[in-house]
Specification:
458 residues; 17 helices; Amino acid/polyamine transporter I; mainly alpha
Length: 458
């Protein structure tokens, strides 16, 4: 086998007969050999990045998600959703590889994959090809902006919980949130992500420290395990589903990580980066959700840090530290939305005579607009748990379940769908799951948000 690090000549300029055959025959074309990442990552580096991307604010919301599902149902469902997310990521990466072979290109972005899928797939999809990238970009942008909103609400809620112990009378959550507009704006204005690397290492350390403190609190004074309901009301299950999907699914990040690997063939192996990473992530989420819900039961709050004793100095320190880590990560989460909007919807419509300085002005205006939008949304709907669930149900049901299934159908269409076309029927089932999750989850979240806002909750 040719090493993954071998660098071939650019497409269209083969140097020998063998190269010519590779260029002209999709069966022998290996997209991995035509990727030229300037700084490829090793398997271990990719695994670390995967863990960092997958373990965020969602993990602190999982104990509340178990309240919606019930303890036994939560455990089983989280394991099943973890397996589903892992499988659909396999489907997505494998299908993209097949389409790259047929199109003889090194890689495809997610929006490009949807466009190519519509062009290559069944006839009824081909009319959607021109609109597929825009639809995919919409979900990607909504997802990234939704995460930014969650981060803003998380910081405001946790800082208020600390400050309320010292400042009387209490200040409203809106004012605490607005106090952090400038820090969030400065984080978003960083264009070179390498400048944030040292802070990201600090954020990772704080995250590990937070898990340790969570363990310290949740293992104290545990009630009888049998006192917790095994199953929650089915009407609240969509809320659990959205939160769990928000926590476990990281399709956009996974594509970027696989594209940048030094040895991408290692990514999907049985003991490869994806399986090991998702196994670790799922086990961590299940463990913390079990312990958090076991300890606090029906009193669990949208972020488990809010259940820690407010007057305890350790709880106050960890709330401030983790809020700092989330603030640092805000720019990283907003970066994909900036790039998608800038490269697809701003730069192509500027005149060719536009100077680089003016383009930079447009970019900074876009960054300011995204920060302003996320603050408006965060202040308008300061409901952390429901916001997390809404983003997960609306965006990731499509991006993480339905779209990968559509791409796989197209990648193997029309005569490679297996005996009895089992791949087609399996993917139709995944599409149905994704659509039901999107509709039911989004409806439940929006209904709960409207009800809570009408009742004056925050």
């Amino acid at each position: 086998m040719v090493s993954d690090t071998v660098k071939l000549e650019p497409l269209g300029s083969p140097t020998d007969e063998k190269a010519s055959k590779i260029e002209n025959d999709a069966e022998y074309f290996d997209p991995h050999l035509h990727r030229h990442s300037p700084h490829p990552t090793t398997n271990m580096e990719t695994l670390i990045h995967l863990l960092k991307a997958a373990i965020g604010t969602g993990i602190l919301a999982m104990p509340e998600a178990f309240k919606f599902a019930g303890m036994v149902n939560g455990i089983i469902s989280t394991i099943l959703i973890g397996l589903l997310c892992t499988y659909t990521l396999h489907v997505l990466i494998r299908s993209q590889y097949e389409m790259c072979k047929r199109r003889k290109v090194g890689l495809l972005t997610y929006p490009e994959s949807m466009r190519v899928a519509c062009e290559m797939g069944p006839n009824f999809l081909r009319g959607f090809a021109p609109y597929a990238p825009a639809l995919t970009n919409f979900f990607l942008i909504f997802y990234q902006i939704g995460i930014c909103c969650v981060y803003i609400v998380f910081v405001g809620v946790n800082v208020k919980a600390v400050a309320d112990q010292y400042i009387k009378p209490e200040i409203s959550l809106i004012l605490y949130t607005l106090m952090f507009f400038i820090p969030f704006l400065l984080t978003m204005m960083v264009r070179n992500l390498k400048l944030l690397s040292p802070f990201s290492y600090a954020a990772n350390f704080i995250t590990l420290l937070t898990f340790g403190v969570c363990g310290y609190y949740v293992f104290q004074n545990l009630p009888p395990f049998s006192s917790l309901p095994a199953f929650g009301p089915w009407a609240s299950y969509p809320l659990y589903f959205g939160t769990c999907l928000f926590s476990l699914q990281a399709c956009g990040v996974v594509i970027a990580l696989e594209n940048n690997m030094e040895h991408p063939k290692s990514f999907l192996k049985p003991l490869g980066v994806l399986n090991i990473g998702m196994l670790i992530v799922t086990l961590i989420y299940v463990l913390l959700a079990i312990m958090g819900y076991w300890r606090y039961g029906e009193h669990i709050l949208p972020s488990i840090t809010l259940n820690f004793p407010s007057a305890d100095p350790l709880a106050q320190v960890i709330r401030i530290l983790y809020s700092t880590a989330i603030l640092i990560s805000y720019g990283l989460q907003g970066y994909p939305a900036v790039q998608i909007i800038l490269t697809n919807y701003i730069l192509p419509y500027l005149k060719s005579s536009t100077t680089e300085k003016r383009k930079l002005v447009y970019e900074y205006l876009l960054r300011f607009a995204i920060v302003a939008l996320t603050f408006i949304l965060g202040i308008t709907v300061p409901l952390l748990g429901l916001f997390i669930s809404l983003v997960g149900a609306f965006c990731l049901s499509a991006l993480g379940i339905a779209f990968p299934a559509i791409i796989e159908i197209a990648a193997y269409w029309p005569d490679r769908l297996g005996r009895g076309r089992w791949i087609l029927w399996k993917d139709i089932a995944l599409i149905i799951i994704g659509v039901v999750g999107l509709v039911a989850g989004s409806y439940s979240c929006i209904y709960e948000i409207v009800t809570a806002l009408a009742a004056g909750k925050s």
